[in-house]
Fold this sequence. Notes:
The protein is mainly α. 84% of the residues lie in helices and 0% in strands.
Amino acid sequence: MFILLLTVFVDLIGFGIILPILPFYALAYDATPVQITLLVSVHSGMQIIASPIWGRLSDRYGRKVILLLTLAGGGVAFVWFGFAGSLVGLFLARGLSGAMAGNIAVAHAYLADITSSEERAGAMGRFGAAFGLGFVVGPVLGGLLIGEQPDMADFARPCLIAAAFSLAAIVLGAVMLREPQRRRSKEAGDTRLEQLLAAAMANGIPSIVALNFLVTFSFTALMALLPLWCQARLGWGPSEVSYAYAYIGLLVAALHGLLVGPLTRKFGEPRLLFLGATSLSTGLLLMPWIGGVGTFAADVLLLCMGTSFCHPVLTAMISQRGDGDHQGTVMGAANSIAAVARITSPPLAGLLFSQLGPNWPMLMGGIIILPVAAAAARMSLTFKRQAKE
């Protein structure tokens, strides 16, 4: 597991480098707020298409080869993004990057292959910690590389560094990553479409996927517009936003890596999901009252608690309900639905930002999370009754 998490961490450094500079890069091509959010959405749109394909291919041909292939494609996308030359070029490069980012489903399936059902939430938490640490290092590097008053040449430099980290992840994965034993023992025969659909629809998977959709929708609205929100409300530029992302990444890494596993064992997955949903909703609804660095830091703690508890628990629940022969397919389908949230949320959030003001996308997200909290409360009551029996 350590080698997989290390590979993901190195790759996410590259992704984190790009994230805080993306809105400002698009502004250099005179992009509007809606176009900037669409630039985020095209990445997720390609994930919708690619996630189940990569997941199914990994079921058939193995996790490692698909992970390495997609890491290579992601590196190419970073280089293309750095030398896009136009707003259209930015969209095309982000589309390729999104297609390669469908490998998250493969990584989740890999973890499912090497962990028991009882360990799954903790493993997903450690996976999220690798993501968070990548966001600590990546945005800081991006901010340092781009400078205070970037020109077009400065935008290319972080993209090349991001591609270099992708190359490092490929080398690391090729040398040290091993194909899961459980995968080697499976037959690579064909599976009919009806069987794939049945695997994705069994054991209450759609209802858990729907909750994950709502969490992803709300958090994506926040992350897509955070640079513009910080600029509008706090007067921050690329460097300050990069440090904000680093702070978020550090919190997410700590919460995922240190708390998700122990809290899941102590309270159970439904109660942890309820705590995460209420924290995320509260944090989003309080954002209009942020007035400086102190209140920003406190509110972000609530937001990070929310996503750090919700996403690993929901991902573990989906994985636990999927059968072993179709883990890649089930996780690919779940990631595609989450990608639908990531593609639809930014344009709507950008429209609210433009027409009603910077706080409205955050208020929308806070309200959308309330049904997740209600569902988690209901699951908690059921879990408590079953424990007594």
